[in-house]
């Protein structure tokens, strides 16, 4: 049974290649979920790869909610603070305070 499945898979891969269609390895990779390890913000579904100071790596984190500390945009590969969720704007209401997510 396993040999038959392998044979069918091989035939399909050959047919797809001859037809000019992408094979399994050429299909787009899925975005990583919250808490998954990452190296760049583009890997994460949320668009935020946050630095993990405890382990020295980075992980996918959710975007900042209303009144949370934020960055106006994602810069570089990983961040120490995430940008705001869709519909919120990262602004500072006072020069002495850090930026926070607000609705405008």
TrEMBL record:
Give the GO terms filed under biological process for this record: digestion; lipid catabolic process; response to food
Name where it mostly resides. secreted
Q: Name one GO cellular component term.
A: extracellular region
Q: Which positions carry the signal peptide feature in this UniProt record?
A: 1-17
Give the classification, highest ranks.
Eukaryota, Metazoa, Chordata, Craniata, Vertebrata
Localization in the cell: Secreted
Q: Which UniProt keywords apply?
A: Disulfide bond, Secreted, Signal
Q: Which organism is it from?
A: Aotus nancymaae
A GO term for molecular function: enzyme activator activity
Name-wise, this protein is Colipase-like protein 2
Work out whether the entry's keyword set contains Secreted: yes
Tell me which domain of life the UniProt entry assigns to the organism this sequence originates from: Eukaryota
Supply the Gene3D superfamilies for this chain: Lipase, subunit A
């Amino acid at each position: 049974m396993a040999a038959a499945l392998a044979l069918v898979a091989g035939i399909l891969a050959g047919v797809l290649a001859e037809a000019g269609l992408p094979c399994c390895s050429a299909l787009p990779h899925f975005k990583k979920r919250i808490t998954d390890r990452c190296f760049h913000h583009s890997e994460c579904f949320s668009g935020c790869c946050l630095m993990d100071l405890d382990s020295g790596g980075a992980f996918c984190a959710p975007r900042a909610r209303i009144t949370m500390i934020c960055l106006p945009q994602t810069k570089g590969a990983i961040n120490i603070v995430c940008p705001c969720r869709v519909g919120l704007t990262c602004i500072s209401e006072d020069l002495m305070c850090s930026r926070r997510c607000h609705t405008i």
